Amino acid sequence: MVPKPHVRLGSWNGLSFTGTPQLRSQELFKLDFVSNENEVYYKYELLTTSLESGLVINRSGDLQRFMWTGTRNINRIIYSAPEDKCGAYNVCGAFGLCSVNFPQLCACLQGFGQNNSSMSSRCVRRTPLSCNADNDGFKKFTRMKLPDKSLSLFDKTMTLEECEKTCLKNCSCTAYANLDVKDEGTGCLMWFDALNDIKEFDTGGQDLFVKMATSELVSGDSTASKRHSTKQV
User: Is 161 helix (H, G, I), strand (E, B) or coil?
Assistant: First the structure.
């Protein structure tokens, strides 16, 4: 059996990991993520010589970042993951949405419902996709931790409009988003098959466009497929 991840920080969107919008470059430190044909790595740089910082994994498997001053020798945890009940990996399952504001923590994404015929009560589409560009569209979800990238592809050169068209033409594509949210947003990130480990934040997060049958798209709401506004953390 493949081990289940304990926690996932989310994909890098140019400013932070989408699962940790509160942990981004600030006056004390600068964060960066580098990915090219030769190397992939994440780094942080302290912007003051009076502070030191360390990243550790405790006995429970939680990720914690400490910061301290050399003179006062006082440790302070500035970040811990998971930070709440929705921080553990894929709490709500495929196409499920986790929020600490929900009465039962989990809910199916709009356009999906629980499969009552299954003992797992997992979320499934209310209306199947037609695999026809005229009968399918996208619903926009805001303030999201983007889904697990295990079944995804990215293109650094595509616009968000090009990303939408490409996903719409591919029967297996289930969602898309900007790869980088800096400035007006650049690049394309597309998911295939189930969407896992999604969380809704009160503030921050990123826009996620999920493919739906046209009948599931409510006229006049904020999720119309033609409106593209990149949500920065």
Answer: helix
